[in-house]
Recover the amino acids of this structure.
């Protein structure tokens, strides 16, 4: 089945810094997504990005499906960006999302 | 607001007792999921449903059962709760959004088994 690996597991930044989070997946996927879990536990969709590049404000994501990786870029980080970032890909049957273990981001002022 | 509510939101129960968590949706989506979240493991799929009375196992289904008797409700039952089932449980639905098909999560149910 699909394996999803994220790196780094933990990231500590000063406010204003930029960062790149990586997601590697083991099999061909047709649906790759990024989520943010805030410190209160709420899970929020960031990007649905099976391929190509998308941007939303200070966040952008790129997926290179042929090389089986996706990157999430956070520019000019803010304390509100803190939390856990997950990437997830659908299993081969397309019936369920398989999650990576997440990257825990801490942004300090 | 994706129209998902979980209940109870917090529960403490004793080892060996049955526990049922409820997920209710107002979106009429076909697919519903139960995940558990534990430190160091991310979110792991327990069971999912692709329609009324149609369910299948995920990667960590042992000790859990599910039922879906109507579209809007997906129940997760811990048949005999154990301390290893202390976790945060998230329900999710799969539907269409402005960015394409995507998954929406409930707010989570914190379960402690003592």
């Amino acid at each position: 089945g699909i394996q999803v690996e994220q790196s780094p597991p933990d990231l500590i930044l000063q406010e204003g810094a930029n960062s790149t989070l990586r997601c590697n997946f083991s099999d061909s996927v047709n649906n790759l997504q990024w989520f943010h879990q805030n410190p209160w536990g709420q899970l929020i969709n960031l990007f649905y990005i099976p391929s190509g590049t998308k941007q939303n404000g200070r966040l952008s994501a790129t997926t290179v499906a042929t090389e089986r990786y996706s990157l999430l870029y956070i520019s000019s980080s803010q304390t509100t960006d803190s939390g856990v970032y997950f990437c997830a890909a659908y299993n081969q049957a397309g019936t369920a999302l398989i999650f990576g273990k997440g990257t825990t981001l801490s942004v300090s002022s | 607001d994706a129209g998902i509510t979980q209940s109870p939101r917090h529960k403490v129960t004793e080892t060996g007792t049955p526990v049922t968590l409820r997920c209710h949706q107002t979106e009429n989506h076909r697919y519903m999921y139960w995940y558990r979240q534990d430190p160091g493991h991310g979110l792991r799929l327990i069971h999912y449903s692709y329609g009324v009375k149609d369910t299948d196992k995920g990667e960590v289904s042992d000790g859990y059962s599910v039922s879906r008797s109507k579209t809007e409700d997906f129940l997760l039952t811990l048949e005999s709760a154990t301390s290893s089932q202390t976790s945060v449980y998230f329900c999710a639905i799969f539907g269409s959004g402005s960015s394409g098909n995507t998954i929406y999560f409930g707010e989570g149910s914190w379960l402690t088994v003592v």
